[in-house]
Every structure is written in C-alpha cells, then in structure tokens.
C-alpha cells in the first residue's frame, strides 16, 4: 500500500510467504515531503518483479 498524508508518503506491505513458522513479514517506510512537493493526481506507483516504483508524472 502507498498513500500520502499531510507530511509525506507512507509505504506499507506484507509478504505472507510459505514459511508457517515465522508468520508474515511486514515492512513499511515513510518519506517526509514538503506539502507543496507533490499533487496527488501527479503520483504514479507501479510494482514490477518485487520492486515498487513511485514517480511524479
């Protein structure tokens, strides 16, 4: 999941995997951005081969 809040961009996800002993792996990150750094209609996110790419159009 990728979403914007008032101060930046939030990235969160979960990999369920096949290993039942450890449970799901969770990950996340936060990138602080000035409020005038982006407009929501100009953001594009794409996941390909396990790589998340977030760009401004």
Automatic annotation (TrEMBL):
Domain SHSP: 1-57
InterPro entries per UniProt: A-crystallin/Hsp20_dom, HSP14.7/HSP23.5/HSP23.6-like, HSP20-like_chaperone
Highest taxon above the source species: Eukaryota
Region (Disordered): 1-25
Signal peptide annotation: none
Protein family according to the UniProt entry: Belongs to the small heat shock protein (HSP20) family.
Annotated protein name in UniProt: SHSP domain-containing protein
Biological source species: Panicum miliaceum (Proso millet)
């Amino acid at each position: 999941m990728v979403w914007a809040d008032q101060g930046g961009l939030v990235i969160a996800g979960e990999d369920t995997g096949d290993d039942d002993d450890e449970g799901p792996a969770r990950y996340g990150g936060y990138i602080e951005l000035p409020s005038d750094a982006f407009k929501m209609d100009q953001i594009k996110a794409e996941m390909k081969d396990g790589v998340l790419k977030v760009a401004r159009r």
